[in-house]
Amino acid sequence: MKVGLFIPCYIDQFYPQVGIATLSLLEKLGCEVVYPQGQTCCGQPMANSGFEHLTAGCNELFVDHFQGFDYIVAPSGSCVLHIKDHLHVDHKEVAATHIRQRIYELSEFLTDVLKVENLPARFPHKVGIHQSCHGQRGLGLSQMSELVAAPFSKPQQLLQMVEGLELIDLKRTDECCGFGGTFCVFEEAVSVKMGKDRIADHVNNGAEYITGNDVSCLMHLEGILRRQHSHIKVLHIAEILNAGIN
Amino acid sequence: MEQKHKEHSVLAEAFNNNEPRVNWHDETLWWVRQKRDKMAWTLPEWEELREAASQIKHNVLGNLHDYLLAFEKNAIANGAVVHWAADAAEHNRIVLQLLQQQGVKRIVKSKSMLTEECHLNPYLAEHGIEVVDTDLGERIVQLAKEPPSHIVLPCIHKKKEEIGDLFHEHLGTPAGNADPKFLTAAARLHLRKEFIQSRVAITGVNFAVAETGEMVVCTNEGNADMGAHLADVHIACMGIEKIIPERKHLGVFLRLLARSATGQPITTYSSHFRKPKAGQQVHIVLVDNGRSRQLGREDFRNSLKCIRCGACMNTCPVYRRSGGHSYHNAIAGPIGSILAPNLDMKDYADLPFASTLCGSCSNVCPVKIDIHQQLYKWRQVLTKEGHTKKTKAAGMHAMNIVLSKPGLYKTAGGVGRWVMRTFPAVVNNGMNPWYKQREMPEAPKQSFADWYKKNRQ
Ligand code: SF4
């Protein structure tokens, strides 16, 4: 199984450890992983700001880098959702379609494709899950609290395999953290307030770590936590699932 | 992008100056959202019910012309007079004319978001006619000289103490009394006088049944009924999208409406108005005001399915923390943000950006409007039409240039991180909205791409 690793731009630049954890986790689970060099970005920051028409360059680059893989995996729900919904290149539509159908966010790749049932990971801490909206409501990584439907959660399913890890319950299970792409700067006041409220929910329920499937949301929460001089840390789910695997 | 109003972000920031109040506003509306959840869960068929409602409205929008004519025909046969208004101005003129014919100077009106949209009250005031809003929440904001901040809970932004003060000032209740029961009783007495004296009553319409020509008006206070039953003339104002084909479809919509709105199984009063009683006149004003234009915009057509339950506002994490007035439109929140740009792109260009696109709104919507997807699509339209700030556009063009050229991206990323490590003040300053209340991420020495090159090749 040949897997193309997509490391979104802000992870590449600011959170390389998340890319490293993702790569090593996939390799340890037996995948042949290639990181196509020269990849940049899925184009989402522009598209969500109303500039989808400027993303042709990013799209073409993406198709060039990721055609020919059995699967494409990324440690980011929102970038994967963006590719699934919006990747089109006129003269390379067959390849673009293949990518749209074969791209997975890391957790769903582990639960749905690799069908992982146990992980030799250990992380003896109290952890709260931050459900990032694009992964949850967009990709369906977890059931949504608004719907009258049976609950499930792929990230939770994986974290429960981790030895010593205790998941905490939140008062609001899937409220948005307020990152929202360029929303975080253009609507700074509301964005930060949303982030503070999300953090308070984790704090009040005893979290030592906040984890999630989107580094963008975690970066926003981390920025607020550090400003508050909080002892709570954020970790991407790949870093926890990769902890202690030998 | 020059707007008549301050932008959402500016108004929202002002709202956030009082954090305890934001917390209170957020918690109050979240409580309503939870009541909605509980009620929805009492119906195992909830999701099918939403789908049915969405499909019925789909049919309505596809055949609106025929249903409207059928409704008109049946309403006339019932003895009502039907008026058509192309826009808000025509609607207001029609209502004014009817009131002038009656020679009245003061009338009662139950809740109608359409008349808010048309700014009927100030228009009538200019012509010497005073409107008394009889929905308690609307009366409160009217006394405060403010617009409603929520379509179902118009004064949700007001604390009970503030309402007590308003009543003291306007209705003569004792100073400092903020007991909701007491204040409601006082409002009741005050409104009763208005009901008895008013010869004309305006109501909104929740559903207009094409098959029978009847209108259904839902309230919890019975104020629409009090007004309409006691008046010689009942004027019902409705947007043309309020049509449903048959009476039996009410079985779907009435079950959804109150559960979604306030977590009640049904509104206290769901009143059917079909034939005028002896000696009474009933006028129905059917208003377009941009609706047929929205119907023609395929991407945004579904927004006309809205039954104005307010659930998308209650669940919206941005609305709860920015307040209804920050949307500077009669209809606030997620649905307001996709309806408003249809009325005036320039004036409301900020609203589709006042969202994180989290998608919670689309999930609670009882008629399954793809609200957050329409917000995304409006962003594309507004940008192409040139309603985006120049600085933002320049930034996006620069981003495009960097991100579509791997070499440039690598250099820019490396330089950026080096600058952040070496001269943190370049990014950590007051010009950077991220830094105002958040630390910047720490810039690592090497990117993932650098690491990969060293370790895997
Ligand atoms: S858009 Fe949907 S949720 Fe929002 S008010 Fe309309 S019907 Fe209710």
From TrEMBL, chain A:
InterPro entries: Cys_rich_dom (IPR004017). Residues 3-84, 127-221 form the Cysteine-rich domain. It comes from the Bacteria. Pfam families: CCG. This is (Fe-S)-binding protein. It comes from Chitinophaga rhizophila. The lineage of its organism: Bacteria, Pseudomonadati, Bacteroidota, Chitinophagia, Chitinophagales.
Automatic annotation (TrEMBL), chain B:
InterPro entries: 4Fe4S_Fe-S-bd, 4Fe4S_Fe_S_CS, FTHF_cligase-like_sf, Helical_ferredxn, LUD_dom, LutB/LldF, LutB_C, NagB/RpiA_transferase-like. Gene3D superfamilies: Alpha-helical ferredoxin (1.10.1060.10), NagB/RpiA/CoA transferase-like (3.40.50.10420). Residues 296-326 form the 4Fe-4S ferredoxin-type domain. Keywords: 4Fe-4S, Electron transport, Iron, Iron-sulfur, Metal-binding, Repeat, Transport. SUPFAM superfamilies: alpha-helical ferredoxin (SSF46548), NagB/RpiA/CoA transferase-like (SSF100950). This is Lactate utilization protein. It comes from Chitinophaga rhizophila.
